[in-house]
Amino acid sequence: PLRDAVGLLKTVKNAKETKIKVKALVSLGKAYMARRGGTRADNIEQAIRCYNSALQYLHKRALTGERDDYFLDEPDRVCALLAIAYDERVLGSREENINQILVYTDSLDLDSKEDAELRAVTRILRGKAYRDRSGAEGLGMMDQHIALSFFKEALKLLRKRASPGYWAEAHLEIGKTLLGTADGLDETNWRDAEEHFQNALKVYGGNTRAVKFAMVEEQLGNYYLRCAREVGGADFRGRALGHYSPSLQHLSAEENPAEWA
Prior knowledge:
Elements: H1 2-11, H2 18-34, H3 40-62, H4 69-88, H5 94-104, H6 116-132, H7 142-157, H8 164-179, H9 193-201, H10 210-230, H11 234-249, H12 257-260
Helix pairs in contact: 1-2, 2-3, 2-4, 3-4, 4-5, 4-6, 5-6, 6-7, 6-8, 7-8, 8-9, 8-10, 9-10, 10-11
């Protein structure tokens, strides 16, 4: 995909058609995000540069006043792709990347049927950003409720068969958020988190999505550890260990340093 995208960009290097240039840059950005070679950090930075260049072309075209549905809709799609890149970004502080995600997912018009999945992804990203931002930037526990509303909105837009990965991710993030809420807080119940983690495991398998599988197993371990503390019983601690062990088995300190730690 990267070779094809570079080839496309070379063919339109001197082209006057902005639409072709934008499509080439977006394709190149997606290719960098999917690239296995090179370092992950460098690939994501290259993708961000491509998407930003595409936005510059789109904004310049907007200044001409010419109306074209493509140039009206495409900036929001590119902004969504930038948010995805910042969510996966290795460089920069998490707080800096969260701020970029909130900027690029603000007031997007992705209401068409073809953009339903992309809209759902932006809801997931926006929910994670609200939940994970620092207390100084946020609204305290209100951020947890806002995050849950975004995740639930995403889940309404997704179908397991059509978008299994994002469907599972929405369940994982709902479970994580519920597990982080205080007992008896408004209408939320942290005990509901287990059901969402189990739904995520319907998609994430140890042999197919090892990192995601390990993340869910870790969260289930956290869930049962909280049960042990707040409900009581040695059985819960044993079940927690039963989930922590496979989580570690599917991660390595070299390939997954953040998750392994």
